[in-house]
Amino acid sequence: MTATVENINSSKALKLGVAFSLVFSAFIWVAEQYLFLEQQLLPKPEGVPFWYFWQLNEPNFITRLSAWGLYIGHQVSIWWLIYAAQKERPQYTDGLHWFNIAALAANAIFITLHLIQTAIWYDGLAQDVIEQSAQWSVIVLLFVVLMMENQRRGMFFGKKLNFVTAASSGLRKYHGYYFAWATIYTFWYHPMVGTSGHIVGFLYMFLLLLQGSLFFTRAHLNPKWTIFVEVMVVIHALLVALMNGDNWPMFLFGFLGVFVVTQMYGLPLSQKMRWLIWSLFIGLVITVYSFKGWETSYEVIFIAGTEWACAILFAGLILFIQSDFMKRITGRAN
């Protein structure tokens, strides 16, 4: 068993971490207004439908090194802490373990360094990788959470899919490595600029980093907190869609659909409260599509359906790989 710092409660650390995340998100806006220099950004090429605008027009070796070097330092430090923690096989406790304090400190340091790096060199990883890689890293994170939480809250209306639970056993042990990569990679993809979409996105990343820092504590398992972090994607996706002129109802109702069908069944709500939430959701859908047009209402299912389908298909793939059939094939091949 690993030693814990019992006088530092994980729930208190969670509250302080949320406060830090909110304050630092506000500071990004202040930095954008008063500290950052105006940069020459890469214009959108002709005929490219999706374009990430926040890239330097003339990047150089130093701008790339600053982003990639700090990203790698951040990534390796958190991965090492996860590895060191798992070697000790600690119990879940109310207090913080030494590796929780180290992870909180490391994330706070690299968050601060990212702001400084943006002010001096600007570019993130976006200069060298496609935007879909950052988007899908988080999408995979979200549907893996659906898989792991299936055993507690179910997948549809509180109903559990037993094969998804069976496929998720390994994910529960090793998911921290992937979640750390998805969060930190996405965090360093973007320069820390002060648009509304970026600020809410960074707030979302801060909360995910905070959740990841509290592994092997009771706060890490708090269902109200974990569902709040999941649902934060609704606000982020809606603001980004509005900022980019995208189809915002699809994003709003897609992620809200996941909440009303799956996530809210992990909360201690009465049946009356669930019916009230369902009524508000359906009423909002009717109001929006009465103006937008019912011919596009099918888009409500796109995002939610993608998450559920990915979770189910990925679970099936895991079970197929683990099956006796595959083991026999592998044995014959060897």
Figure out the total of helices.
Answer: 13
Largest sheet: 2 strands, antiparallel
Strand neighbour order, sheet with most strands: 1-2
Radius of gyration: 21 Å
* Mean pLDDT score: 90
Q: How much of the residues is beta strand, in percent? A: under 5%
Helix residue percentage? over 70%
Q: Classify the secondary structure makeup into a structural class.
A: mainly alpha
Task: Give the topology string: H per helix, E per strand.
Answer: EHHEHHHHHHHHHHH
Number of strands: 2
Shape: globular
N-C termini distance: 40 Å
Low-pLDDT residue spans = none
Structure write-up:
This protein has 334 residues and is mainly α. The chain contains 13 helices and 2 strands, in the order βααβααααααααααα. Strands 1-2 form a two-stranded antiparallel ribbon. α1 runs antiparallel to α7, α9 packs antiparallel against α10 and α10 crosses α12. The longest helix is centred in the first third of the chain and has 28 residues. The two termini are 40 Å apart.
Offer a quick outline of the entry.
The protein is mainly α and about 325 residues long. The protein has helices spanning about 10-35, 60-90, 100-120, 130-155, 160-165, 170-190, 195-215, 220, 225-245, 250-260, 270-290, 300-320, 325-334, and strands at about 5-10, 95.
